[in-house]
Specification:
Helix 2 packs antiparallel against helix 4, helix 3 runs antiparallel to helix 6 and helix 13 packs parallel to helix 14. By secondary structure, the protein is α/β, with parallel strands linked by helices. The N and C termini lie far apart (about 80 Å). Strand 17, helix 12 and strand 18 form a beta-alpha-beta unit.
């Protein structure tokens, strides 16, 4: 009999009460992988919520140093188990060992845990604010138990029990209930094992880190809207995320979503004239990287009609045809990609190359390039912005500068938007018309570079207007800004000095802490009254 893996609840690995199970599938072979994973019933989810609530009460007033120590220990444990993590993630996702898993994503994951630890230890992210005359003080403090839903496309860096949302929630001082993704449950189990060991070694309470693999859709909605949950973080499909948002919004619970983005690229006429071949190569490489399974994949390109643009489209198509067809993450990704392409075609797009399933190993679709006129795009903007998540992109060919503007005005919210312009300044006037409109549609505006990479730096914004995310004012990548999603602003009015959090005391808890004191951002103690 095949083993059913245990869930992590209240500090213990325990047999699930669930009677239904699922298996991960190797995307390259389409064969189920060993091991079954339980679907947790509601009563089991409630046990996790109750344990997280008890843990939250224990750690509520702990210093950031306590959480930093845990995060650093966890990062060390991930690095020590790298070989096993890389092997199982490769089997479960078909993502290549090198450079993707070994050289890029796994180091990024442990690095962002350490960055979050630094932010927790410093504490400046809490925005301590002191108005000494009226004796009113405020700062960001933990919001309570956080639920993290991990996506399919980043088995480490966005994993529910190790990724960016997890790191931010913990650094902000909150317990985490991780809801794993069905595409890579084995990877998530190993990460949870190391997280629990790190928690034990650093004195975290039982229930600080918990893992359930899957719930019913209705129980997922009950989870994010439960009175004891502080906030939730979700990365995944627009349809499922929107249902979770509706449930959380109904009861006023914060939920931070990353849902859908086609990341428009504008290649203006002068840029194509200057460097057609180079731009074709950059675009094809970006679009097909990781089989297009990035949330910042360039799924829409806007060019102006003309011989140079036709040459660019031809060169891109040749590169798509010559490039190997990669394996998608699973059957649902292939189905959604095929459905997305069909929707685009049904609303006026034509296939330049690709468009069919197959061409590679396992779950796969041909590298697909489509095109549509600006007139048709403006007539059906919602349908022609359907996300074809994977190795596909749509070129919108506009007839005039006015159509550039109209297409831009019709865009939904996106994570990124990029404009390529000529080095001689010939595109500057058109840029100045497009950029202000595009700026309001995207979280991150780029010039002359593809959007696929997301650097884990403090200035990064991995967010944007709906449907890219559920709230345009927050980022899922970039520390310390990402921590603020999982905190609540708490104000202390006339509270006696010995009852204040250390961050708000007249004497600064450490010299590196930045605080807003009487309207001035400064380090050090509150100046003595004159």
């Amino acid at each position: 009999m095949m083993t059913v893996q245990q869930v992590l609840i209240d500090g213990q690995w325990t047999t699930s009460a669930g009677t239904s199970t699922f298996q991960a599938v190797n995307p390259k072979t389409k064969e189920p992988l060993p091991g079954k994973y339980p679907i947790s019933p509601w009563a089991e989810v409630v046990r996790a919520i109750e344990a997280a609530s008890r843990a939250a009460a224990i750690v509520r007033d702990w210093s950031g140093d306590r959480f930093a120590t845990f995060l650093e220990k966890f990062a060390d444990r991930i690095d020590a188990r790298a070989a096993e993590l890389i092997e199982i993630a490769n089997l479960e996702t078909a993502l290549p060992v090198q450079p993707r898993l070994k050289d890029a994503e796994l180091p990024r994951t442990s690095n962002q845990l350490r960055q979050a630890a630094q932010a927790a230890r410093d504490g400046s992210w809490t925005s301590p604010t002191i108005d000494s005359a009226p004796n009113i003080r405020s700062m960001l403090r933990p919001i309570g138990p956080v639920v993290v839903f991990g996506p399919n496309n980043f088995p480490y860096a966005f994993n529910s029990v190790a990724g960016g949302d997890f790191a931010a929630a913990v650094a902000a001082g909150n317990p985490v209930i991780a809801k794993g993704h069905s595409s890579h449950p084995g990877t998530t189990r190993i990460l949870a094992e190391e997280a629990q060991l790190a928690a034990t070694e650093t004195g975290m309470p039982a229930g600080f880190v918990q893992l359930i693999y899957r719930t019913s859709h209705d129980d997922g909605k009950r989870l994010v809207s439960h009175p004891a949950i502080g906030a939730s973080g979700y990365t995944g499909s627009r349809s499922a995320g929107s249902q979770l948002k509706e449930a959380a919004d109904r009861v006023g619970k914060p939920i931070y979503l990353e849902l859908s983005s086609i990341n428009p690229i504008y290649i203006l006429p002068g840029a194509i004239r200057e460097r057609c071949a180079a731009l074709a190569e950059q675009f094809a490489s970006s679009c097909l990287m990781g089989v297009g399974q990035f949330c910042t994949n360039p799924g829409l390109v806007v060019v102006q009609a003309g011989a140079e643009s036709e040459d660019w489209i031809r060169q891109v198509a040749e590169r798509f045809q010559a490039a190997p067809v990669g394996t998608l993450l699973g059957p649902s990704v292939q189905n959604h990609l095929e459905a997305g392409v069909q929707t685009l075609v049904a609303h006026g797009a034509t296939i330049v190359t690709g468009g069919a399933s197959g061409g590679g190993a396992g779950y796969c679709c041909q590298n697909t390039l489509l095109r549509v006129t600006g007139t048709k795009f403006i007539a059906s903007p919602a349908a022609l912005q359907t996300e074809a998540f994977g190795n596909a992109s749509l070129v919108v060919v506009v007839d005039s500068e006015a159509e550039f503007i109209s297409v831009t005005q019709a865009l939904e919210g996106n994570l990124t938007g990029c404009l390529y312009t000529a080095n001689d300044g010939s595109d500057d006037s058109l840029y100045d018309q497009i950029a202000p409109i595009l700026r309001q549609k995207v979280g991150r505006l780029l010039n002359d570079k593809m959007p696929t990479g997301v650097a884990v730096v403090s200035a990064m914004n991995h967010g944007g207007p709906f449907p890219a995310t559920g709230h345009p004012g927050f980022t899922a990548v970039g520390i310390p800004a990402s921590l603020k999603r999982f905190a609540m602003l708490q104000c202390y009015d006339g509270v006696r000095p010995h009852r204040l959090p250390a961050m708000l005391a007249d004497k600064s808890p450490h010299s590196a802490l930045w605080r807003m004191i009487d309207g001035k951002l400064m380090q050090g103690d509150v100046p003595a009254a004159k």
